[in-house]
Amino acid sequence: MKISISILFFIVLWVLCPDVLISQSRHESIIPSWTKEAVWYQIFPERFRNGDPANDPVLSEVASTWPYLSPPGWQIHPWTSDWYKLQPWEAATAEDFYTIAGARRYGGDLQGVLDMLDYLTDLGITAIYFNPLFESPSHHKYDATFYHHIDDNFGPDPGGDSKIWQLENPADASTWQWTSADSLFLVLLHHCHERNIRVIIDGVFNHVGLSFWAFQNVFENQKASPFKDWFIIDRWDDPETTENEFTYSGWNGVRELPEVRETATGLAPGFEAHLKQVVRRWMDPNGDGDPADGIDGWRLDVAEKVNMKFWQTFRRWVKEINPAAFLIGEIWWEDWPRNKMFNAAPWLQGDVFDGVMNYRFTRAVKQLVIDNEQKISASAFADSIRRIIKDYPLPAVYTSQNLMDSHDVERVASQIVNPDRWLDHGGNPIQNRLFDVRKPDSLERMKQKLIIAVQMTMPGAPMIYYGDEAGMWGGDDPDCRKPMLWPDLSYEDEISHPFGDSRPADKVEFDRNLFAWTQKMISIRHNNSLLKTGEISFHASETEQNILLFSREDGEKTIWILANSKGIKERVTTEFLSGSETGWIDLITGKTVEREVVTLKPFGIMILKEL
């Protein structure tokens, strides 16, 4: 019997690489099998944990980026301070909070992550997504200076690292060396992998920072620069005038983020060649052909802005090094002013990404559980999820990140406090003066617990934004980027408001109850494979408007989930459980369910498994 070369390739790959699963869509695709088992945790490095104060940023670095301030007395911001309270050096600038916040640094670093790996393991995390780690002057690192070096303030020796940079030619990978920050990141990877935690990092390749080495060369040498074709130059400087006429395209018009030039086949050839070396460096650091010492994949920033042909090329680079590596795209707003999200299907046909950040899931859950006047019924929620499943190849559904918030939107706790708004619209006081900055009350925390349980029982890989499990709240950027809330630290109460408005005094402390709930829901997911890979079916209930009733099954076994999306008790008939000979147990309470009618608490949930 004849067998095609392509089929033979996938058979061999399956034998040699059990970490991948093979699926068929428009293109033969290889989806990493570990991703459907993952529980993700997103870390914003500068705000997670300051494990090494000796490497903290200094004012000269901070002043080189927006908002370009050099205030006397500047210092690293106290980790546990009232978020909106201005320090003396901040108040002396007379700048508003949302400007001065851009000059804050808290000193989070890689040592802080290493120190808290036990915390992540105890929570049940199996995969980490890091916001950008590469060298950059900003707190967010989306304005890269280098792609081949970890930010020096994330490592143990910033001064020594900067000296190493001077010995290199960034355009020549053969001259690249390993800095102390680079080496510490590799140590972190090793310790994560020892704990069976996968790690992906942010790839920001649509644009660079003003300090990016090649853009600096263009700025200084203009048309004579060998890198002039890497960027979209609108006008060159005229040396005959005293003005600097040099202008260029920046992402969304932001001058600090020069955009990379596209071609018919991808991105500028020289830039692509540079990125190929970057990919090799971080995916197989020692270059021995075994990717075990490298990252486990990439999250690709503003992916819809980049020529899809480049992503196809990028995928080939990545999968040639590690077929089990994961590629996930940030694809969400198709038309932000009209609240229209992308159908990401074109990027999920097996030749571009393995999954996406599933903001469509975010919006559906928000409308079901959080909103009041704009609340949708359980059946409408089911329709939203069915549309996602219909739109995307099934492997992409199971591997996409089901998130409720991120560094780009208001935290889920503050979404709950401020219902009936579009996600990522009017999400903090500078965008909407009516935005409520307070802490959630006890009933609102019940909503948050229900949301966590829904995340852990739906198809797709749940992702937690750092600190949500600890009770953190905050509006859209920068308020969603507060320093992490730790149980071993004592925090000031939040009593300040960015515009001086009245607000309640909120106690800021680690929420042990919410942490324990999150930990329990993660454990239930880990211990019940149906919740990760089972087919989903939605069912109508007698109180359809409020009760979300769905099952996860594999043809032999079934788990039933009953969720009350309202703040009142609801009675649910359970005739669907009558076929069992052994009975059912609620995995949350550990109690058996024998009644024909059960009562769900306000925003309550039951996860029923056959005994």
What is the fold's blueprint, element by element?
Layout (H helix, E strand, L loop, with lengths): L4 H12 L3 E5 L3 E5 L7 E4 L15 H4 L25 H4 L5 H4 L9 H6 L1 H7 L3 E4 L27 H9 L13 H15 L3 E6 L9 H9 L11 E3 L11 E2 L13 E2 L2 E2 L1 H15 L13 E4 L7 H14 L4 E4 L3 E3 L4 E2 L13 E2 L2 H12 L7 H14 L2 H6 L1 E3 L8 H6 L24 H16 L3 E5 L46 H15 L3 H4 L1 E5 L7 E7 L4 E7 L5 E4 L10 E3 L5 E2 L3 E4 L4 E6 L1
Parallel strand pairs: 3-4, 3-16, 4-5, 5-10, 10-11, 11-14, 15-16
Antiparallel strand pairs: 1-2, 6-7, 8-9, 12-13, 17-18, 18-19, 19-24, 20-23, 21-22, 21-24
Helix pairs in contact: 10-11, 12-13, 16-17
Using only C-alpha atoms, the radius of gyration works out to 25 Å
DSSP strand (E) fraction?
A: 15-25%
CATH fold-level assignment of the domain at 536-610: Immunoglobulin-like
> Strand order across the biggest sheet?
14-11-10-5-4-3-16-15
What is the CATH class of the domain at 536-610?
A: Mainly Beta
Number of helices: 18
CATH architecture of the domain at 536-610: Sandwich
Structural class: alpha/beta
Q: How would you sum up the global shape?
A: globular
What's the helical proportion of residues?
25-40%
* Corresponding CATH superfamily of the domain at 536-610: Golgi alpha-mannosidase II
What characterizes the major β-sheet?
8 strands, parallel
Q: Average pLDDT value? A: 94
List the uncertain runs: 1-16, 20-28
The count of DSSP E runs of length 2 or more, i.e. the number of strands, is 24
Termini separation comes to 47 Å
